[in-house]
Each structure stands twice: as structure tokens, then as C-alpha cells.
Amino acid sequence: MIDEKLAIWALANTDGVGPAILFKLVTQFGSAAAVLESSAHDLYKAEIVNQGAINKILQRRDWDQVRAGFQKSFPDRACFVAVTESTYPAKLRNIPDPPPFLYYQGRLDIFERPSLAVVGSRRPTDYGIRMTSRIVSELASTGVIIISGLAYGIDAAAHQAALDSGGQTAAVFGCGLDIVYPPGHKALAQRIEQSGCLLSEFPRGTRPERYNFPVRNRIVAGLSDGVLVVEAGGKSGALVTAGIALEQGKDVLAMPGSVEAEQSLGPNSLIKQGAVAVTGADDIFANFGWHRSDPATRPAQDLSRLSKEELSVFGLLSVQPIHLDELGRKVALGPGKVAEALLNLELKGLIMRKPGNYVVKA
Fold first, then answer.
1. What is the pTM of this model?
2. In terms of residue numbers, what domain contains 263?
3. Largest separation between any pair of C-alpha atoms in the chain
4. Half-sphere exposure of 132 (CA within 13 A, CB side)
5. In angstroms, rounded to a whole number, what is the distance separating the alpha carbons of residues 361 and 350?
6. Which of 23, 155, 167, 245 has a beta carbon 3.0–4.6 Å from 148's, enabling a disulfide?
7. Omega before 267 cis (within 30°)?
């Protein structure tokens, strides 16, 4: 049987197969490899894709050609993780449209920790830079992972403050990992990779085109427990990220500013719409229920005695609540098996149930 990583890549790069359809196919057939090796009759019978997409899937059986395309897509030194793997970030897997795979350099395990996306203007004020550095330093020094997009301005200030405080940070690219954008941040990217992570869903050679960044922003939000907006004009891309975060069910926080300042229009507007006003790190700790010693001192959970079914369910969970219906759609188990796994995980103290049929990691 074809390697599952290769199968995920091939299926995701098939016309007519978007992330939602890919998940349905993998759930129905058990794996991406099984989808690619299925007959036209079986694919048609599943009633997930139309005849055009079925034809495209059937054309994906030149494995040498697929393998060559897969290898060509890799940036130098990059690793690859598929959404079906246990090492794929659980928070990102739980969004409505997670990327089927990621290219990355650095450490993926950092995303198991509390995390905050920090975004804002590319032309911030001195006040915005100062407050970003102050807030991020307090968060990162306790183990909170800071996520941003490597851009000039607030993004760079957040990455640098996290690193300077001895913390870890992750940068999500809107291009291939072989192209650092902006070019002036090559040294910053190298620092981030040493202790954190660089990620992209785009293959080698993908240029930083404008339309890539809204797509990228769903990953910035998806990897985090919430998004903090620090200074942003009325049409800033940071507001796009905040909107995506709301759609994903994440918390949106904003730093208030002068009503006369252009760079405060975005955060002030978000606060009027219900975003959490942040004037210091304590507001963020209180909002998420984090304690300053928690990220660094909490012992790792022992998963060695979990059954295969329990691991499958647990791997889809994070500190961000997920509805039982959504969980059922994403895990390749029957309803009875899912219910049994959830009960066992709850008895072992690994998960908690929330009102409205939601569950989270304990």
C-alpha cells in the first residue's frame, strides 16, 4: 500500500478534493491510501465526490510521478506532517478547514502548550511596540507559545520579545519555507527555528502573493488558544485574522488605544463588538485561566496505557472545546466506540466535558 503521507499529499493536490471532502473520504475509507486505491464504483457509491473528482483521483495512480512531485515540493531541511498523524497540532486539526498537511522546520510539540497569536500593524507606534514587548515577555517567560506571521511591525516585535525572554515562538509563512518574507527577517527566522517552529502549507517555491496571506491567517488563529490584536487600522489584515478566530470559536482580545489614533481603530472596534480588552498580561492569564507557573511546571500526561481508540479520540482534542458532533465526524470510529473512549478518558482525568456537548483536554 502507498505511504499515508504521500497519499495525503496526492489527495490534497487533486482537483475537486478540498480539505472538507478529503476528511470525509479518509473517514469513509479509513485512510488516504485506501481512497487512492479504491475503485471508481466504490468512490461513486460513497456519494462524497462527483464524477469529475473521481476521474482525477483515479488518475493519481502513477505512484512514481506522485512521489516525484511530493519530493519536489519539499523546502530544504523541512519536515512534513499529515493531518491524520498524531503529531499534527491538535488545535489546528479541530478548526473547520485545517490544512491537510504542513511543511515545518523546528519543533511541533510546542503546540501542545498554551498559545496566543499576536498580530497587528506593520507600521506600529512606539507605544504599540513597547506594549507588545511587555505583554509577550510576561507570557513567553512562563511558557506560553507566541504565534505570529513574521511580518514587520507587531509580528516581529512579538517574535523578538518571546525569544528575548527565553520563551518559544512560531512563525507561519504565507509562502514556501524556502522563501523568508520579508527578506529582512532571515536572521529572526533562524532564531525562531532554533527553539520554536516555522510552518507553511505552501510547497517549495511558492511566492508571497497577497492572496496567500488570508489563507495563512487561518493557521495563525488555528494554532492558538486566542488572538490578541495590537494596533491595527480599520482595514488591517490583523482584523481578518481576528474574524477567522471568531469563526473557529477562539477568543479575540484587543489592546485599546486613543480614539484619535488611526492604529487604534481596529482594536477599539473589536472591543466594542465584544473582544476582551487587554492592558497587560494579567488580563490574558485571567481570560484563559492560565497560571504563571502552569505551562512550565505541569507534568506531561501519561498516554502509554491508552487504547488505540482512546488515542485516536484524544489526539483530536485540545484545550479549545470541540463539539461531540464535530469530533464524531473527524474520528474514524463508530458512535459507540467514540462514547466508550470519551468515558474512559474522562475517568482517567484526561478530558473534561463542557456545557452544550463540548469536550476539552483536562
1. 0.78
2. 110-171+218-295
3. 64
4. 32
5. 6
6. 155
7. no
H or E element that contains 227: strand 226-230
| Cell triple for 140 | 513567553
Interatomic CA distance for residues 311 and 249, integer angstroms = 24
Domain match, 161 and 265 both: yes
Is residue 22 one of the residues assigned to a domain?
Answer: no
Whether residues 255 and 139 share a domain: the answer is yes
- Torsion, Cα 107 109 115 117, to 10 degrees, reads 40
Hey, CA dihedral for 57, 61, 63, 64, is it positive or negative?
A: negative
| Average pLDDT of the residues of the chain | 90
Q: Which three cell numbers stand for residue 353?
A: 466535558
Number of domains, the chain: 2
pLDDT category at 1 given cuts 50, 70, 90 is: low
Task: Say if residue 256 is preceded by a cis peptide, omega within 30 of 0.
Answer: no
Same domain, yes or no: 240 and 341:
no
> What tens digit of pLDDT does each residue of 183-241 get?
999 999 999 999 999 999 999 999 999 999 999 999 999 999 999 999 999 888 899 99
Residues constituting the chain = 362
CATH number of the domain at 322, please. Answer: 1.10.10.10
Dist CA 266 CA 271 (whole Å): 9
239 domain-assigned: yes
Q: How confident is the model over 28-70, as pLDDT tens digits?
A: 999 999 999 999 999 999 999 999 999 999 988 788 888 899 9
Contact 5, 32 (CB under 8 A): no
Residue at 74 is within a domain:
no
Coil, helix or strand at residue 77: coil
Please give the sequence-ordered ranges of beta strands (E in DSSP) within 107-225, or none if there are none: 115-120, 145-148, 169-172, 197-200
Examine residue 236 and state whether it is found in any structural domain, yes or no: yes
Res 109: pLDDT: 92
Residues 165, 191: contact at Cβ < 8 Å? no
322-323 sheet: strands from edge to edge: 322-323, 358-361, 351-354
The predicted pLDDT at position 296 comes to 43
